[in-house]
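Q: I'm building a small set of examples for a reading group on sequence design. Run inverse folding on the following structure and report the sequence directly after it, with nothing in between.
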C-alpha cells in the first residue's frame, strides 16, 4: 500500500481547519487538509459560508460568511506547504509514532492530526419534513431566500441563528413567522432589536411544529396549539434553525474522549485531546461559546502544539 506522508493532517476544511493549516505551514509543517468530497457536503469554509452577514469578526465590520471563508482559504493556499484535498476521511488509526488516514481517494501517514470536523445541521423530525426537503423545507435562508419573494415563510427556532435567518428572509418574503417552543427567543441584542423593528416578522412562542403538509411543495404546517384560532398555518416555506450536531464519529473511533453531547473534550491550553498527537478545534469541541473567531484561535493553538509534538517525536527518532 502506498502512503502520502505529511507532518500535519487537518480533517475538516472550515474556518478553523484552514486557519490551523495556515499556522502549521508557518511553523514549517508539511500540511494536508481534507475537506468536502461531494456537492452534498458544505463547501470549503464550512458552516460560516451559510451566514448572510458576519459583523463580529475582528477587523471586518461586515462581510458575508462566504466572503470571510474565502479570505481564510486564500491565506491558507498562499503557503506552498499546504495541500487541500477534497476527499472524505473514512478512517484514522494510530500506528506507533504516526497516524494512518484512509480517504475516499488515498492513504496517508501523518505525524499529528487536527480534528476540525465541525457540526452538521440538525434537521426537523416531523411528518412531511423529509418528503418536502428542498421543496419548501430548507436549512439555509441565504441559499434560497430569493425564491420566496412576496411569499409567506416560517423559521423554527429561537437562537441567534434563527433570528438571522428570519432577517434574511424578510428581505424577500412578505411575511415571516418565527416559531419557538420556549417562552421567548434568545438572539443577540442587536438582532433582537432588528426583529422588533421589522413589521414583516411575527413571533409565535410556546409552540411546536408537529407536521408539514403539501403535495409537491410546502402548503401549510400544523402546530401543537392554536394560533389565531387555528392549528394549521398556511405558508410557502419553512426553515429550521434548531441547532446542530457535532461530527465526532472519527474522533470516537480513534478513542478520543467525548462528553455527553458527543463533543471532543479539549485541553484548552494546548487544544490537545485525550490521544497524544491528536488535536481539535472549532464547533466539534466542548467549548461552550461557538464562534468562528474561537475556532480559529483553537486551531492556531493546535498548530503550535502539533509543531512541538512533531519536533519532539523527530528528536526521539534521532536519539534512537
Amino acid at each position: 500500500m502506498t502512503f502520502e506522508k505529511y507532518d500535519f493532517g487537518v480533517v475538516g476544511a472550515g474556518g478553523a481547519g484552514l486557519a490551523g493549516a495556515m499556522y502549521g505551514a508557518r511553523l514549517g509543517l508539511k500540511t494536508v487538509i481534507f475537506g468536502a468530497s461531494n456537492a452534498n457536503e458544505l463547501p470549503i469554509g464550512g458552516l460560516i459560508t451559510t451566514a448572510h452577514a458576519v459583523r463580529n469578526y475582528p477587523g471586518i465590520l461586515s462581510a458575508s460568511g462566504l466572503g470571510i471563508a474565502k479570505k481564510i482559504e486564500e491565506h491558507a493556499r498562499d503557503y506552498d506547504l499546504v495541500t487541500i484535498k477534497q476527499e472524505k476521511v473514512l478512517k484514522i488509526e494510530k500506528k506507533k509514532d504516526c497516524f494512518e488516514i484512509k480517504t475516499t481517494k488515498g492513504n496517508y501517514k501523518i505525524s499529528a492530526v487536527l480534528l476540525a470536523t465541525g457540526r452538521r445541521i440538525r434537521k426537523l423530525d416531523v411528518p412531511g419534513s423529509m418528503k418536502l426537503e428542498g421543496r419548501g423545507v430548507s436549512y439555509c435562508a441565504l441559499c434560497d431566500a430569493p425564491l420566496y419573494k412576496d411569499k409567506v415563510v416560517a423559521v423554527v427556532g429561537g437562537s441567534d441563528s434563527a433570528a438571522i435567518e428570519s432577517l434574511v428572509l424578510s428581505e424577500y418574503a412578505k411575511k415571516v413567522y418565527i416559531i419557538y417552543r420556549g417562552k421567548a427567543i434568545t438572539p443577540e441584542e442587536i438582532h433582537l432589536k432588528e426583529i422588533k423593528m421589522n413589521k414583516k416578522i411575527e413571533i409565535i412562542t410556546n409552540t411546536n411544529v408537529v407536521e408539514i403538509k403539501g403535495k409537491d411543495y410546502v402548503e401549510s404546517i400544523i402546530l401543537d396549539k392554536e394560533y389565531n384560532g387555528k392549528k394549521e398555518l398556511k405558508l410557502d416555506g419553512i426553515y429550521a434553525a434548531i441547532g446542530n450536531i457535532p461530527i465526532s464519529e472519527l474522533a470516537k473511533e480513534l478513542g478520543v474522549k467525548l462528553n455527553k453531547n458527543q463533543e471532543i473534550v479539549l485541553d484548552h491550553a494546548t487544544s490537545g485531546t485525550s490521544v497524544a498527537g491528536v488535536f481539535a478545534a472549532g464547533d466539534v469541541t466542548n467549548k461552550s461559546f461557538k464562534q468562528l473567531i474561537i475556532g480559529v484561535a483553537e486551531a492556531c493553538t493546535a498548530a503550535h502544539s502539533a509543531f512541538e509534538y512533531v519536533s519532539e517525536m523527530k528528536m526521539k527518532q534521532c536519539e534512537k
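The mean pLDDT is 93.
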